[in-house]
Each structure stands twice: as structure tokens, then as C-alpha cells.
């Protein structure tokens, strides 16, 4: 995980952060710097047009396999000056190791070159044949370390787990509904350089095909927490439901928000999500009570240090998170649910001044099961004094969820906001309503539009 970028932290800084300047030389054209390697005959997957058995049950990712990849990354670092940093021989050797495994497993691999800090950097992209090319499910992690250590938790852990999930796809000869793509990013530690380069050089038509990007950065911290990104409700719920099935509570990830490779995707509108076990922030007493470990100690005491070796991994956390990655890839990749499915109405509804409540109805269809625990409610209400308004979301069974209370001191106009509601006890399908009441005199307005994002 990269150092904190100014303006992205949500909590107090624990140390003084220095972000090294990273200059990127962008070749002309979206395809500049790409070297494509098609799968060879040995171990190659069947062509996309060939019939392949469907294996919809997510596999149990073998911990021993993930740790074997970490041992290889450690050996590579040891043989190359103790690190796998951008511009160093250890990084290129790491990329060659991952690429070799994927080529043998039947993936089409693409090496993308970029320049940062005067050195050549590399991204590795691996595509699994088949699936809808207009609906791409993308899982990725950064492969580089800092220069001071081997980077086995940060981020050998994410890289190894994503690699083993990709290899599990090959072993299952999976026939997904969506096209599956996996990525390993270079120069993340210099400011998300590799992933930014990839996204910035991807044509907008190709960006629009990415149904979701899943990011995994530090998933084996030795004093672990279980953090889930809250960016896309469907992806978030997929991970939360998995851990709930294990009886493992989760928290929303805030420590590294905007500091890892999901940020460039999120910035161009791609639905994103991911997992994280914590970096240099300290575990609280409440977190230690529910997760175990040591309160008052950093989630990863070896963050960006020379002691980030194969001894700096919690096996239980690594195992659980690797299995969660496979669960998400199988669940989101073989199903028909789109991350970030939006239901919206733009029909205007007038709000009477100091009058009765009004409602705007929205019909949700085609969903299965209950609504997510992080249902996003986007509201656009035009009103000359927003403090007059009380706003509720009403579920199909009539249960009301308060979104906004009135406030005499809230003198601004309009309510344009997104609220998050735990609606997991409600059936997803049915008629949802936005209820708005003006409880004071003199100002008027109307519901312009509102939407639900599942």
C-alpha cells in the first residue's frame, strides 16, 4: 500500500509521510507499450468457443499454494538486493514469475510498459478466455514492494492470493458469465503509477465494459483486522456476506481509502470494492476483542520495513481472505447481478409548504433475496430552505428509514445527497418510496429525482 496521499486520509496521521514524485511518460495511443503473450499449447485452456463444464461453487483456495507463491517472492527479493521495488531487478523477476504461472495455465497475458522516475515499469494483465466481453470482472493487486524490504504482506499477500485465484479458475476450467481479467500493478508505492497508467490509457469504450474492479492490498497482516471497502454496495455485500458466513465481523475500510489501486478505477466511474487487513494504524481494544490479536499494536508492525518477510504473515487472515477473493470472483463472475445496479425515477413531485408528506414511488424488479446492508439512496430535492424537510425511505413492507431530520439552523437550499441504509431485512423487489414532508412555512420545492443503487 502506498504512502498516504494528501487529502485522502480520514484519520489522524501516525507519522510524517513522504511521497516520492513519480513522473509517468505516456506513449502515444492506448496500446503503446503492450506486449501480448498468447497461451502456449502445454496446459492451455480450451478455446472460448469450446464447450466447458460450469463449476459455480467457489473453491477453497489452498493456503499452502498461496504461501508457496510468497516463498518464491521472498526468494526473488533475497536474490535481488532484498526488495522487489519499481525499477529494480526484483520487480521484473516477480512479474516474470507470475506471468509464467498464468501462461502455463491458459491465460492470455499482456505486459504493459510505462516510465516513472526515469525507470521502466510494468503492469501485467491476464485474461481468461470466454465470458461476456462487454461485462468484465477485474481483480487486481500491486506487485511492487518498497525499496526497504521484500514486501511480503505489502503486497505479496494480495498478489499471491489473486494469482492463486486465477489458477483456480484454470483448474476448474471455469465458464463464467462475465469475462474475467486479473491485474498486477507496478509502481503503486510511488503513487499508484501503474494502475493510473492503465486506466488513463484505456479507451473510454473499454472502461465502460468493466462491471467491477476488486482490489486486494495487504490481506495477511500479522495483527489482522477484517476490513471491507464500502464503495460499491453489491461488491461490499458479497464480501460481508462471505465473512458473516464464517462468523467473522467486518468493518468498513477507511485507513487506506484512496491509497491503493482501486482509486484510479473509482475515479472514472468503475464500481470498485476490496479487502484489507490493516497497515500501521493501531488495533483498538474493541477490535482486539472481536478479532483477537493485540490491542494498541499496529495491524502490521513491519509496514514498509525490512522485516516485511514471510514471517510477517498471519496464516488465518491470509487463508480467509484468499477464499473470500475466490468467493467474489465466482459469485460476481458467474452470476447475472451487475455491481452497482441502479433503479431511478425522475418524475417530479411537488412538496407543499408546511403541509402533508408526499411520496415518490420506485419499482424494483429482477432482484433476488433481500436488499443489501449498504443500500445507497441518492436524493435530489430542490427546495429553498432544506432545514424544513424531513426525508424517509419507505421499504415495500412499509418500514420507514429516516434519511434526514429537519433543522432550523440548516439554511441552505436543496437536498442533494447519497445516504446509506441497512436494508438487509427487506425484500429487494417491490415498491420503494421516498417520503418528504415540509414542516415549516414560507419555502417550497419538489422532489426532482431519486435512485436506489443495489
Fold and architecture overview:
By secondary structure, the chain is of the alpha+beta class. The protein has two domains: 311 residues, Aminopeptidase; 112 residues, Jelly Rolls (Sandwich), CATH 2.60.120. The protein has nine helices and 19 strands. The strands form three sheets. Strands 1, 2, 3, 4, 5, 6, 7, 8, 9 and 10 form a ten-stranded mixed beta sheet that branches. Strand 15 and strand 16 form a beta hairpin. The longest helix has 20 residues. The chain starts with 23 loop residues before the first strand and ends with a strand. The relative contact order is 0.13.
Shape: elongated
How many beta strands in the DSSP annotation? 19
* Terminal residue distance: 29 Å
Q: How many domain units? A: 2
Q: Could you spell the SSE succession in H and E letters? A: EEHHEEEHEHHEEHEHEHHEEEEEEEEE
Q: Please tell me the CATH architecture of the largest domain by its name.
A: 3-Layer(aba) Sandwich
Radius of gyration, whole Å: 23 Å
CATH topology (fold) name of the largest domain: Aminopeptidase
Number of helices: 9
Give the helix/strand class. alpha+beta
Query: Mean pLDDT, rounded to whole units?
Result: 87
In CATH, what is the homologous superfamily of the largest domain? Zn peptidases
The fraction of residues in strands falls at 25-35%
Q: Approximately how much helix is present in the residues?
A: 10-25%
Q: Write down the CATH class of the largest domain.
A: Alpha Beta
Unreliable stretches covering 5 or more consecutive residues: 4-55
Main sheet summary? 10 strands, mixed
Amino acid at each position: 500500500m502506498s504512502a498516504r496521499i494528501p487529502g485522502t486520509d480520514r484519520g489522524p496521521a501516525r507519522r510524517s509521510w513522504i511521497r516520492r514524485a513519480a513522473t509517468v511518460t505516456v506513449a502515444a495511443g492506448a496500446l503503446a507499450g503492450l506486449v501480448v503473450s498468447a497461451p502456449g499449447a502445454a496446459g492451455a485452456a480450451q478455446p472460448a468457443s469450446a464447450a466447458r463444464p460450469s463449476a459455480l461453487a467457489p473453491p477453497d483456495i489452498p493456503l499452502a499454494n498461496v504461501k508457496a507463491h510468497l516463498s518464491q517472492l521472498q526468494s526473488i527479493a533475497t536474490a535481488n538486493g532484498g526488495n522487489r521495488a519499481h525499477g529494480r531487478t526484483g520487480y521484473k523477476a516477480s512479474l516474470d514469475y507470475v506471468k509464467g504461472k498464468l501462461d502455463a495455465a491458459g491465460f492470455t497475458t499482456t505486459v504493459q510498459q510505462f516510465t516513472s522516475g526515469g525507470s521502466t515499469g510494468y503492469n501485467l494483465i491476464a485474461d481468461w478466455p470466454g465470458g461476456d466481453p462487454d461485462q468484465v470482472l477485474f481483480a487486481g493487486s500491486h506487485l511492487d514492494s518498497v525499496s526497504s524490504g521484500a514486501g511480503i504482506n505489502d503486497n505479496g499477500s494480495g498478489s499471491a492470493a489473486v494469482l492463486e485465484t486465477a489458477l483456480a479458475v484454470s483448474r476448474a476450467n471455469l465458464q463464467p458469465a462475465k469475462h474475467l481479467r486479473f491485474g498486477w500493478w507496478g509502481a503503486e508505492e510511488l503513487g499508484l503509477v501503474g494502475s493510473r497508467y492503465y486506466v488513463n490509457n484505456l479507451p473510454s469504450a473499454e472502461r465502460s465494459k468493466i462491471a467491477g474492479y476488486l482490489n486486494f492490498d495487504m490481506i495477511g497482516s500479522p495483527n489482522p483486522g477484517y476490513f471491507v471497502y464500502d464503495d460499491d454496495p453489491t461488491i461490499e455485500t458479497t464480501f460481508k456476506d462471505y465473512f458473516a458466513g464464517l462468523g467473522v465481523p467486518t468493518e468498513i475500510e477507511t485507513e487506506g481509502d484512496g491509497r491503493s489501486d482501486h482509486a484510479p478505477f473509482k475515479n472514472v466511474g468503475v464500481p470498485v470494492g476490496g479487502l484489507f487487513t490493516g497497515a500501521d494504524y493501531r488495533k483498538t481494544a474493541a477490535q482486539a476483542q472481536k478479532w483477537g490479536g493485540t490491542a494498541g499494536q499496529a495491524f502490521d508492525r513491519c509496514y514498509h520495513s525490512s522485516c516485511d518477510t514471510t514471517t510477517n504473515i498471519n496464516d488465518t487472515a491470509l487463508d480467509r481472505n484468499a477464499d473470500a477473493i475466490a468467493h467474489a470472483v465466482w459469485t460476481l463472475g458467474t452470476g447475472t447481478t451487475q455491481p452497482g445496479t441502479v433503479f431511478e425515477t425522475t418524475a417530479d413531485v411537488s412538496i407543499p409548504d408546511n403541509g402533508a408528506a408526499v411520496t415518490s414511488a420506485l419499482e424494483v424488479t429482477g432482484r433476488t433475496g433481500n436488499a443489501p446492508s449498504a443500500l445507497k439512496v441518492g436524493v435530489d430535492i430542490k427546495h429553498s430552505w432544506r432545514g424544513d424537510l424531513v426525508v424517509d425511505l419507505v421499504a415495500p413492507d412499509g418500514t420507514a428509514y429516516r434519511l434526514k431530520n429537519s433543522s432550523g439552523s440548516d439554511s441552505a437550499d436543496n437536498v442533494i445527497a447519497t445516504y446509506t441504509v441497512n436494508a438487509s431485512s427487506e425484500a429487494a423487489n417491490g415498491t420503494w418510496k421516498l417520503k418528504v414532508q415540509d414542516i415549516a412555512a414560507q419555502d417550497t420545492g419538489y422532489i426532482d429525482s431519486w435512485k436506489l443503487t443495489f
